[in-house]
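Hello again,

I reread your note about wanting to compare the complex against the isolated chains. To keep things tidy I'm splitting this into two emails, and this first one only covers the full assembly. Below are the input lines as submitted, including protein chains and any nucleic acid or small-molecule components. They are followed by the predicted structure of everything together. The single-chain runs will come separately.
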Amino acid sequence: MNKSIADTAKDHCDDEVVTPESSASATSSMHQELIIEGAGCASCVGKIEAALKQVSGVNQAEMNFAQRTVSITGDANVADLIKAVEKAGYNAKSHSAETEEDALDEKEKADQAYYKRLMKETWIALALGVPLMAYALITGEMNVNTTGEQVVWGIVGILTLGVLIVSGKHFFVGAWKSFLNHSANMDTLIALGTGTAWLYSMVVVFFPSSVPQEARHVYFEATAIIIGLIDLGLALELKARGRTSEAIKRLIGLQPKTARVVRDDKEMDIAIDQVLLNDVVRVRPGEKIPVDGEVIEGHTAIDESMLTGEPMPVEKAVGDTLAAGTINKTGSILFKATRVGKDTALAQIINMVKRAQNSKPPIGRLADVISAYFVPVVMIIAVSSALIWLNFGPDPVVAYAIVSATTVLIIACPCALGLATPMSVMVGVGKAAEAGVLIRNGAALQTASKISAMILDKTGTITLGAPKVTDVLIAGEYDEQTVLQLAATLESGSEHPLAMAIVESAQERGIETGKVSNFNAIAGHGVQAEVDGKTLLFGNEKLMRERGIDLGAFVQKAQALAADAKTPMYFAIDNTFAAIIAVADPIKEDSIAAIKRLQHSGIRVVMLTGDNRDTAKAVANKAGITEFFAEVLPEEKSKKVQELQMQGEVVGMTGDGINDAPALAIANVGFAIGTGTDVAIESADITLMRGSLHGLADAIAVSKATLRNIKQNLFGAFIYNVAGVPFAAGVLYPFFGLLLNPVIAGAAMAFSSLTVVTNANRLRLFKAQEH
Amino acid sequence: MLFINIAGVVLIGLIVWWFWLYKPKEAELGEDDLVILVENGTYHPSRIKLPSGKPVEIKFMRKDQSPCSEALLIPDLQISDTLPLNKLKTIQLPALSTGEYAFHCQMQMYRGQITVE
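Full-complex prediction:
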């Protein structure tokens, strides 16, 4: 189920195929490259190449079908080339023409134009509807009884038709097209509602005798106002929707447009998509890092807060990695590009956030099922309601039947229901990303809000994960120097954090390591190897006892070290106990506060570690955790997760190491603690971009807030429709004589979906508790 | 009155038949490029037939300005993507086993179905 972000990015691939090699070729004026869209068969290749060769100035045109790109040599104008491809029936664009930001700008422009159109349509409709409504309210006269009235209302009817065509055309075309497609949507309801009202009114105008005298009422004002209000609702909704995607806009905006690369000993500014792998890039203080890379010269502090939420700048020196979009604060550096284009951490984050924003948590499923049947059901209710009025209603039955059917069609709003979940997810996932929390999908978001128990891996999660040697207790004939030298040699091949601590400690003391042979890792217990002809054994008490090595009084000393949150390890040379080396891994500064936050929100926090009981207990005590699993072998981690699940807990598992992967996968929600911006390795449901456990509390808080918001929206949308539709059908009429005016139904419908979007936007104000 | 009542019931029957019972013909992914047009509140064609067992690409062209039509979801395949306006967007589908897969916009007002045989 879990995929790496890189995989996700691949799944997400679209027509744009950007390779560094091909980007470079686009720089030459004699050589151009186009991205072709719409070429799905091999036979298109010939057609496109032929079309391009017709363009004057083209010497050669060769299409790469797999990449959907075509390279052209010659001095032809790009616009002409694109036109030629379009004429042949395909789409084309210049290879370097489009970045995420351009696409976003384009979308904003299109939205802006659509907004203007909707507002224009609104004004046109209201310009007719409002005066008519005022007339109706003042005079109470909308009946057709005389020939004069027939003429006047006939003219108004034709004007209303104009409104329907100018302001409401999109509803009618949409309704008709979806009807042909055997589907029905909001357009269907609006077109049917307003169409019925207008048609009935026209029948009254032209054939008044066909309806009873008391039913000769026209509804032109309702038709025009409903169209106007719904257009207004759509326009305002469009504006509000724009705000829901602010987070992704901010992320996209982080990407600089140019980079200063050093090629042939010359520094030059080039477009970001022209940067190649292994290019050397210069970044000065105050500038943004253009692509991912590794520092090769200089040192500086980098502000990574925009990606990780970590406010403190991070020191970077030669060999350290850099992420695109972060800001260089202090020094001028040179770095080598290691990931460019769509492979950078930033691009992957953007992709992941976009994808998660479109996904739906299971809570939205019921609304989905209802939406699927909604419109035809409303149509059936409208017909039934008209029939009931016709059979049992008071006079004028025809007018009542028409009003109730129209109002039912107009008030029903599938949009509010359909928008309830996605709008909140969009804002919630974006909000989380701003805090450095990457949520994989809607399901993870929903489950995270329900977590009742959180398992925290000790090393690297609660602690810094960078242990240091604190004590060396000598037991036998070998001195501290020799013990450290042998131990460091033994551990030099291991990547275990405790092993690295010993190697580092030896290096700090200027001790050189030797050669190791017959290295053997005994999972969960320790290691064994031969160094300088000596058999070395390094590990826990269990390992020593199994080998029959006498530890004497050192067991108590080890316990004392462990009680002080240190990890004591026994070291034996040629099957004789030689020393205890104790290593301690300091607790991260803010772990204690973050754990308290989790506990305050009612979550059972459990620590899990491979360390011995005493060390585990000491660390747990310090961190404020009462429950812990100690001496857990890597393969047992997932069992511990299951144990808690068997107790009925919704379990979150937080870890950083590769050996946590099975446990992360089996947990209800797996949280990976990212090491800064190097997120590509992560494969969890939720990735915390910074090392702090506050990210965990933030993730859960955002999830809870989002779910609450979704529930409010769904509840509102359900109640609105469940109460609104029967009211419109006239269920209150027999008891209170109340029947809803179609104009009010139109206003309610227009603003119901706007309310949902606005409520979702409230989530933007969400702030994780102060740390 | 009887006539009106019968007409009403027939109308309800027609709604049920037209929107739920009738299954329109499926478009097939053939030699010619299949592009699903997103316009006027619908996908066209909305029902497509695909071969099983091999990865395929389907293409979408969105001409509809409504923001609803922007998102494309294929929940069974865990695909969610954004369709740019007036631009072709290719969606890559993995090798599928036989069955029916629904695709729709966020609000399910635009609906389509992929039948894999």
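For quick reference: Chain B has a mean pLDDT of 84.

B.
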